[in-house]
Amino acid sequence: MKINVVGSSSGKSTLSHQLSHVLGIPHIQLDPLFWRADWQGTPDDEFFAKLEAALSAAPDGWVLDGNFNRTRDIKWRDVDMIIWLDYGFWRVFRQSLCRAIRRIASRKELWPGTGNHESFRKTFMSRDSILWWMLTNWRSNQRRYFADLIDARYRHIRIVRLTHPREADVLVKHLAQNGTDVGTPAT
Question: Could you name the domain of life of the organism this protein comes from (predicted)?
Fold first, then answer.
């Protein structure tokens, strides 16, 4: 099974890790493929090549965690399921804020080898802030993924829309019990 978990900065990595564990397939994160030292992004040609290589390295299945709309043609070419975490604005904002504060306090490197970590200045005083990104993109992401639900180009892909973390828990339990036979989950 090949799964892409998408949504606005709220729970993608946690859910992807859980799915990877219960299905016994690799968890691939887009952020470490994209971000380089000093918060420099990878040029698209190199980023796309890294993504292709990561997906090709797991031909029997993967759980891909991340949005990066410009990678859609690559990541959705062979995907079986898209799980859209469509949580409410205030939940996403609260989770993003709490995560940012935890990361600022811990000073933990976000992606090994990059030296990138959250800082008070970057989080609260910069337009490059993940909080700013969430505030300015939450609505457009919601519109885009809703449009994908009804887009004929994606009819071959199972798109599962989850609106609460409880639904994510139900999906993980369902997949843990039934493997890749997704049937009709209770979400």
Answer: Bacteria
Asked if 86 and 161 count as a contact pair (C-beta separation under 8 A), the reply is yes
**Which of the four pLDDT bands, split at 50, 70 and 90, describes residue 185?**
very low
Q: Assign 81 to helix, strand or coil.
A: strand
Distance CA 154, CA 176 (A): 26
Q: How many CB atoms lie within 10 A of CB 128?
A: 10
Quote the CA–CA distance of 2 and 78 in Å, as a whole number: 7
Residues with Cβ < 8 Å from 33, sequence gap 6 or more? Answer: 42, 47, 50, 51, 54
Q: How far is C-alpha 15 from the chain's CA centre? A: 9
- The domain 2-178 is placed in CATH, from the list 3.40.640.10, 2.130.10.10, 3.30.160.40, 3.40.50.300, at 3.40.50.300
Domain spans of the chain?
A: 2-178
- Confidence (pTM): 0.90
Q: Please write the tens of the pLDDT for every residue from 162-183.
A: 999 999 999 999 999 987 665 5
Evaluate whether 175 touches 182 at the Cβ level (below 8 Å). Answer: yes
Pairing of strands 81-85, 2-7: parallel
Separation between Cα atoms, residue 95 and residue 10, nearest integer Å: 6
